[in-house]
Records
---
Amino acid sequence: MTSLLELAGVERRRGEGEGAFTLEVGELSLRAGDCLAVTGPSGSGKSTLLDLLGLVLCPDRAEVFRFLDRDVAALWRSGGDGGLAALRSRHLGYVLQTGGLLPFLDLRENVELSRRLLGLGPDSLTGELLARLGLTHLKAKKPRALSVGERQRAAIARAFAHRPALVLADEPTAALDPSLALEVCRLMRELAAEFGIALVIVSHDWALVRRLRLPELRVVPQAGTSGCRSRLEGVSDA
Ligand SMILES: Nc1ncnc2c1ncn2[C@@H]1O[C@H](COP(=O)(O)OP(=O)(O)OP(=O)(O)O)[C@@H](O)[C@H]1O
């Protein structure tokens, strides 16, 4: 199967001068339905990686950066937006640390929001997601009337509802207790595999990632380099 997302020789610097930080991605490849965890200590560059994958941060160097057969590096080089916004809104889904639901929409409307903004018609997937995430009986409730865990599950349904190619989850379980965190991550992994959606979960919770037995990449600060530098490395001791 061909790659959905492929990066090689990608670098991005943040800041200037002595305090500048650089993230280096030697190689990263994802196919439809793949699920991957990215771990690393605070400040190592996990959000920088997600911003690159989310097409919101322009790489300084990219030998290869392809997403859905589009040359992302060339799109960035072409200046302006170059179609990146359309790629982002149609083919990416996001799960944030805390739900990020709109307070004036009910749960179902929140879940359907990406589809509506994209002008997509109804999809049986919405009802299926609500059922799978145990939210059907709550669909008419506003976010303020939901528990933290229910809001987070609604945010997951929203990220998947427009059938994106890739879902990026940034510490999606930070606000949940450990048993719920495990359940929520398992659900995301199941949904991703079932619907052929690639999933990248960023987490500082190494124990959780191990329990899920997810393939893991780690953002590793490099000792002895000038300035701060991190590299994305595979973890082979799982
Ligand atoms: N806009 C910016 N300008 C300058 N430096 C930045 C900027 N954003 C991030 N950095 C620096 O880049 C490095 C990596 O930050 P990043 O947020 O990617 O790390 P992280 O692993 O996600 O951290 P955390 O787990 O604490 O959220 C840090 O040293 C940070 O200070």
Note: Helices lie at 46-53, 72-77, 84-91, 107-117, 124-132, 148-161, 178-195, 206-212.
---
Amino acid sequence: MSNKNRIVAWTIVATAVAAIAPVAAMMWLSRQAVAQAEHERLARYAESVIARAAHSFDETQRSLKSLSPLLLLPCSDEHIAQMRLISVNSRSIEEMGYYEHGQLKCTSWDSSVGARRRRQAEPVFTTADGVEVALDQRSFVADGPTMLSIQYGAHSALVHRLRFVDVVLEKGVHVVLARNGFGPVAQYGGPVAAGVAEHALDGLGRQDVDGFFISTVSRDGWTAAAIVDGDHVLEEMTGQQRWFLPVGILLGIGLVMLVLRVSQARLSPLADLQLAVKKKEFIVHYQPIIEMASGRCIGAEALLRWRRPDGSIVRPDFFIALAEESGLILPLTDLVVDTVVREMRDTLRQDRALHIAINVAAQDMKTGRILEVVSQALAGSDIRPEQLWMEATERGCMDIASASLTLARAREMGHSMALDDFGTGYSNLQYLQGLPMDALKIDKSFVSTIGTGAATSAVIDHIIAMAKSLKLYIVAEGVETLEQAAYLAERGVDFAQGWLFSRPLPVEEFVAFYCATLADYGSGPEIIRGPQPASTDSPAALDA
Ligand SMILES: Nc1nc2c(ncn2[C@@H]2O[C@@H]3COP(=O)(O)O[C@H]4[C@@H](O)[C@H](n5cnc6c(=O)[nH]c(N)nc65)O[C@@H]4COP(=O)(O)O[C@H]3[C@H]2O)c(=O)[nH]1
């Protein structure tokens, strides 16, 4: 998959995630918030149920204990009146009964039970101070739901189970109470699914079972749980979502915009170039430089090519300007220097007359950084500094003071310096005089006017004359026809470069080209010497 396709795929996925994730996250957060608030509310209900149960039980046992020991005649009017008074005044106790030898003798309603005689119930649990609790006791006088019988000594108090849990509940809330070590005592409130109430008493704290929210609390021998069903929670959720959803949507919009900006930046030519530099997708081609007088190949210009992963080649016109603007030209220059040293080392060592010219960016001309890069690359390579030329454009030499310094230092190190694309900028004679140069390259735009009769065709003669007056060697670029070559040779142009001789070639093809011209014309003397004197009028570096 190409880088572009990868970014597009990434953008699609990231946009979908950016749009959905915040909304989903906000919905999840809102659910969490509702659940948290709900469990806190339920825990408060469970607490109040325990308080209610403890209160009912305490009140009942206090009342029972107040009758013991019995100081009145059992089942006397006074005794019955006292039991009735307790039943009426107590919020929990419905009826009271008095037993003799385990048999009901009288109740808070009457002194004689007659046919309603019954035995005191078997307790299911007994507290530490002797209070017993029995289940499912019918009323002494009426029909109705069974009650708990709380017994102490000869007295029993009948208490509705509801009295242990009847706290004020909001709609949908269900509470359940158990006596620890015994089991469920009572439940009350909205409907719950079968088994949920029992399950609620199994654990403690916050629980979620089958869509029911449960909070269970245990204290003072009682365990109480409050339960609310999912529908109720969802009703609450819609309320919360009113706040969370817009926040999620806004976040989603923000994230989507961010993703689009990032992918736009990653799809930009600069991001493309950055990635290519990182992945070293660059190669160097070599365009032969021909000595006009002999026809020999005396060197080559190293030209950068961007080879994309699909194998297509991008010419430097499309990326050099961007690389210079963004500073990426520096690693690219390093790459060219390293590649030239690696690829051309053997050939350069075999023929000391051969040179390779590299292009130096404006930034490097200004700072002189290139000199350090080159000297490091050449160290131990056995390539002579004279075999590495540097080409600077007029643009790179606009800051004459710093450019002069770099040029002078380069020449001291033994490199020859050429001014590239001459005539395309704002240079004039004075400007040229201020720069310690060895050679001047005539831009192809002037070469292409030769023989055309165009008004500008005379300019090339002036450039040649100017270079000669400054004693600079002349390299003509973009020579495409025999006519152009003959014209330039006639006017004493030293070297030429162009499609007439060869296009820029991959290293193997360049070496083959060079070997072929070597066979035809033989090798020349070592025409490049250094270090050069830093004077402007003596381009002795290129003396043949
Ligand atoms: N029409 C025509 N064109 C010819 C002919 N002979 C050579 N050329 C082209 O002319 C350009 C010469 O390079 P340049 O003036 O240094 O101009 C170079 C140079 O300024 C820059 N460049 C290339 N490689 C590098 C590099 O490694 N570093 C830096 N800083 N700039 C580079 O990119 C420019 C363009 O390079 P290329 O596209 O390789 O274009 C090259 C070359 O392919 C011909 O007969 N006819």
Note: Confidence is low (pLDDT under 50) at residues 525-544.
